[in-house]
Amino acid sequence: MAQLWGGRFTKETDKLVYNFNASISFDQKFFKQDIEGSMAHVKMLAKQKILSEEDKNQILSGLESILADVIDGKLEITNEYEDIHSFVEATLIERIGEAGKKLHTGRSRNDQVALDMKLYTRQEVVALKQLLKDLLEVILTIMEEHTQTYMPGFTHLQKAQPITLAHHMGAYFEMFKRDSLRLHDIYERMNFCPLGSGALAGTTYPLDRKYTAQLLNFYGPTLNSMDSVADRDYVIELLSALSTIMMHLSRFSEEIIIWNSNEYHFVEIDDAYSTGSSIMPQKKNPDIAELVRGKTGRVYGALMSILTTMKGIPLAYNKDMQEDKELTFDAIDTVKGCIALFTGMLKTLKFNKDVMKRSAMKGFTNATDAADYLVNHGVPFRDAHGIIGKLVLYCIDQNKAIDELSLDELKAISPVFEQDIYEAVSLETCVNKRMTIGAPGPDAMKEVIHINRKYLSL
């Protein structure tokens, strides 16, 4: 068992204890970050005359060779080592000898793992933002193409008022835009370097923490060494943001699942993003949307796990904090996969525009506009509301839409109706006259699309 802390101990750790304590099986995921951090640390040590130039060059050359060999598959990270830090340091000593033993000068595994986790998380935040941008691009393209694709808007899953597909998609654009902004905020808060904090109280070596932070593209060093090694707020924030992303993806997936049903038939999912039944040949199942919806609980679980882990930990570092890695890695990988697959499914989705329009017409989504018509002709709103209620009952009995009734049928319910009622309750009129910013009217949508296009170009 390769351990770097054996001097204090007179007997070897029990094998079960060692395996329970070890993190190499999962923290090897950030071997690049561990080596990157070590290289910056060594450069700083040499700058501060704590290491000689010769030692610096030897160590950097050894670290570069380890990095290259792991990437190329020539060097395997095995469970012989307790963690990724032990693997890198032991392999370095094996390759370059005595100089390798100086790598850990002025550093603890506590600030080392804090750095590695921050570097990895920071990298993944950037990758997640790009995936969200790709999704937003697809949503905005759909909005641009469907400003006149009429459909019912819903409340309580009941048809409410006519809108356009562009307007409906715009709601999801706002959700994922907020998700992207949350990731930006997390990056801004977390981008300070913990390296040089030591175990919890800094070090007596004359480190230049600002220089190390600069080398690693942080805004600067963290300002409290205890908080530096004990902080996992950025992990909690990220898992919270990922949970919100999954919630939005799950809501969107639920709608696609409903729209894909035979009863709605608003959309057709591309064959590449659906599967069939093993027994029922007619089935085309929305499996990707269902899996995205299902995996949401998995990401929620990661958030609750780290919150529970951190809630009772005193300052500073405690071994409990090792639990931050596996669940965070899994949540990140899950969300990245879900965004990518959902984006592909949405990009290839076919919208049945005629079905959507007929659904809006048959669902009395223009009933509010019919009531407004009466109000504009002098009928008190409460009376107008009652008249349209009776009108809807008549339409249901006759299996007709409001605008399919004859003028005589309309006048039999209220003599106020005239020929201009047909234009007033057409889907086009109902949508087009809603012109306030954020509404589905064409000019309002054009302005929003312009704002969103500008946002994506930044």
What would you say about this model in short?
By secondary structure, the protein is mainly alpha-helical. 62% of the residues lie in helices and 4% in strands.
List keywords for this structure.
458 residues, mainly alpha, two-stranded antiparallel ribbon, two-stranded antiparallel sheet, 4 strands, 62% helix, 4% strand
Secondary-structure topology with pairs:
Elements: H1 15-21, H2 24-27, H3 31-47, H4 53-72, H5 84-96, H6 109-145, E1 150-155, E2 158-164, H7 165-190, H8 209-215, H9 225-230, H10 233-259, E3 267-268, H11 287-310, H12 324-347, E4 350-351, H13 353-362, H14 367-376, H15 381-398, H16 407-413, H17 421-424, H18 427-432, H19 442-457
Antiparallel strand pairs: 1-2, 3-4
Helix pairs in contact: 3-4, 3-6, 3-8, 4-5, 6-7, 6-12, 6-19, 7-10, 7-19, 10-11, 10-12, 11-12, 14-15
Q: What does the overall shape look like?
A: elongated
Which structural class do the helices and strands define? mainly alpha
Cα-based radius of gyration, to the nearest Å:
31 Å
**Major β-sheet strand ordering:** 1-2
From the N-terminal CA to the C-terminal CA, the straight-line distance is: 51 Å
Give the proportion of residues in helices.
55-70%
Mean pLDDT across every amino acid position: 93
Report on this structure:
This protein is mainly α and 458 residues long. The chain has helices at residues 15-21, 24-27, 31-47, 53-72, 84-96, 109-145, 165-190, 209-215, 225-230, 233-259, 287-310, 324-347, 353-362, 367-376, 381-398, 407-413, 421-424, 427-432, 442-457; strands spanning 150-155, 158-164, 267-268, 350-351. The strands form 2 sheets. It has a two-stranded antiparallel ribbon. Strands 3-4 form a two-stranded antiparallel sheet. Strand 1 (150-155) and strand 2 form a beta hairpin. It is elongated. It starts with 14 loop residues before the first helix and ends with a helix.
